[in-house]
Specification:
The complex is a heterodimer of chains A (112) and B (109). Chain A has strands spanning 3-7, 10-13, 19-26, 32-39, 43-52, 55-58, 65-70, 73-78, 87-94, 101-103, 107-111. With 112 residues, chain A is mostly beta strands. In chain A, strand 5 and strand 6 form a beta hairpin. The N and C termini of chain A lie far apart (38 Å). In chain B, the strands form 3 sheets. In chain B, strands 2, 5, 6, 9, 10 and 11 form a 6-stranded mixed sheet that branches. Chain B has a 3-stranded antiparallel sheet with strand order 3-8-7, with no helix packed on it. A two-stranded antiparallel sheet of chain B has the order 1-4. Chain B has strands at 3-5, 10-14, 19-21, 24-26, 32-38, 45-49, 60-64, 69-74, 83-90, 97-99, 103-108. The chains are: A mainly beta (112), B mainly beta (109). The interface between A and B is medium-sized, with 27 and 21 residues.
């Protein structure tokens, strides 16, 4: 069956430190992969999506970047975290065009 | 650019009352719309999609292209329906899903 794993579940990092959040998918090949940020009262904001290895589309200019080094691996990174990067980050995958997305459990990031 | 609007951040109803969560969209193409739900301490999950035309957990949603709406309805709310609900829309390429701001539904006993 298809599953998605996202870690860590919670993370506390100081301002200026680097960030790496990882997401992996099992049970499917060549999925569309997504990073969203969920903020209270503002819904889900799409940050990045990828339709294939090495293909990254960015929706919001920001302090973050994404990479897809392998077919079922999606990484969210930052070289230097800002306070405003605090939030709840969700990884998701879709099997194909217009398919429903399946979400991970999310990572709560607190930048201090 | 596509946009999804959920005008109510919080909707509170009593058990057994009808509920309608509003969703309006702006999009130039043929919309592909979804409702997602997030129960407490659970991951975000698909509730229903408009092309399925099915009822899930008693919820239905009808696409109204004239009013550009996709409201979620249930005739008799249950306490277990309390959750965060998100409306979402795909772009023409079918690879970018845009979410609304979400509506928190609270069903009181």
């Amino acid at each position: 069956s298809q599953t998605i794993h996202q870690w860590p579940a919670t993370l506390v990092q100081p301002v200026g430190s680097p960030l790496s959040l990882e997401c992996t998918v099992e049970g499917t090949s060549n999925p569309n992969l997504y990073w969203y940020r969920q903020a209270a009262g503002r819904g889900l904001q799409l940050l990045f999506y990828s339709v294939g290895i090495g293909q990254i589309s960015s929706e919001v200019p920001q302090n973050l970047s994404a990479s897809r080094p392998q077919d079922r691996q999606f990484i969210l990174s930052s070289k230097k975290l800002l306070l405003s990067d605090s939030g709840f980050y969700l990884c998701a995958f879709g099997q194909s065009y217009n398919s429903p997305l399946h979400f991970g459990n999310g990572t709560r990031l607190t930048v201090t | 650019a596509q946009r999804v609007t959920q005008p109510e951040k919080l909707l509170s109803v009593f058990k057994g009352a009808p509920v309608e969560l509003k969703c309006n969209y702006s999009y130039s193409g043929s919309p592909e719309l979804f409702w997602y739900v997030q129960y407490s301490r659970q991951r975000l999950q698909l509730l229903l999609r408009h092309i399925s035309r099915e009822s899930i957990k008693g919820f239905t949603a009808d696409l109204n292209k004239g009013e550009t709406s996709f409201h979620l309805k249930k005739p008799f709310a249950q306490e277990e329906d309390s959750a965060m609900y998100y409306c979402a829309l795909y772009n023409n390429a079918g690879n970018m899903l845009t979410f609304g701001g979400g509506t928190r539904l609270m069903v009181k006993p």
